[in-house]
Amino acid sequence: MSFSSGFSVVIPARYGSTRLPGKPLIDLNGKPMIQHVVERALASRASNVIVATDDPRIVDAVRTEDATVVLTSKEHQSGTDRVWEAISDADLADEAVVVNVQGDEPLIPSVVIDQAADLVNQADDCGVATLCEVMRDGRDIFNPNVVKVVVDRYGRALYFSRAPIPWERGKFESNEVPESEQAWYRHLGIYAFKHWALRRFVSLPKSRLESLESLEQLRLLENGISIAIAESESDIPAGVDTQADVDRVREVLASQNSN
Q1: How far apart (Å, rounded) are the C-alpha atoms in residues 196 and 94?
Q2: What is the pLDDT averaged over residues 202-218?
Q3: Phi/psi at 39 (nearest 5 deg)?
Q4: Could you tell me the CA-to-CA distances from 155 to 55, 129, 136, 144, 178 in Å, in that order?
Q5: Exposure of 90 by Cβ count < 10 A (0-12 exposed, 13-18 middle, 19+ buried)?
Q6: What does the pLDDT look like over 19-28, one tens digit per residue?
Q7: DSSP 205
């Protein structure tokens, strides 16, 4: 596979899903979900857009010649492993940037794809970059499905957790955000890897903290790979995990098309 200069976007898209089988093919206002994600990626500054999937039906569903589709193994344990297989035979420099955009994010703004790529390019001490946002709903702090991140003063991730971190002692009597100068940040699941960091990540065994929290980004931190992080320049709507999410995205797309 030949790559143009500039950063690449790889979209892992697995057919199987516990709650929504065939999720990438769900029709969203006349297009399969995966096509919406591809179009968002193509609207970014990416020089290459690749879909990495495990099913020929998803290959057939990508309706553009501007993206490459790669059929990958069904045995991958994570989307990151699938991303690596899709680009593993490419002749990329160690500092080349690969952005992992999830295949169930049909509303992801193109600007945040560019932001993640720029962030890792500007961080000489980091192999990976990702984004976050301030949490404004106190219930999210206590929701284990909302991943929290603590960031140092230099914009580097200290830790990710499903637990409410940081814990402001004496201020959590209720599930409301206490009045404090402290902000709580939700991690947003977009990653920009330098090629060397992606290669190293997939070569490492699953780590202790990764297993405890079920968060693969902790494998990077446990192995000394720094992660640059910044607040997203644009809101990133939640991805699609349930039928309620499908209905929500359809409403958003219908509203956008009517404007």
Answers
A1: 5
A2: 95
A3: -65, -35
A4: 38, 10, 20, 24, 24
A5: middle
A6: 788 999 999 9
A7: P
CB-facing half-sphere around the CA of 38: CA atoms within 13 A: 24
Q: How far is the C-alpha of 59 from the C-alpha of 65, rounded, in Å?
A: 12
What whole-number distance in Å separates Cα of residue 35 and Cα of residue 53? 13
Cβ distance 139 to 186 under 8 Å?
no
pLDDT reported for residue 181: 56
Helix (H, G, I), strand (E, B) or coil at 11: strand
Cis peptide, bond prior to residue 166, ω within 30 of zero: yes
* CB-based burial, 8-22: b 16+ in 10 Å, e otherwise: bbbbbbbbeeeebeb
Residue 188: name the closest of 137, 134, 141, 226 by CA.
134
pTM given for the model: 0.91
Cβ–Cβ < 8 Å for 85, 98:
no
Handedness of CA 123, 124, 130, 134 (dihedral sign): negative
Closest C-alpha to 130, from 223, 227, 51: 227
* Strand stretches in 66-112, DSSP E: 68-71, 97-100
Distance between CA atoms of 72 and 84, rounded to whole angstroms? 10
Share of the chain above pLDDT 90, in %: 66
Per DSSP, 241 falls in state -
Crossing angle of helices 33-42 and 110-122, rounded to 10° = 50
117, 131, 103, 113: which is closest to 188 by C-alpha?
131
Q: pLDDT digits over 232-257, tens only?
A: 999 888 888 888 889 999 998 888 87
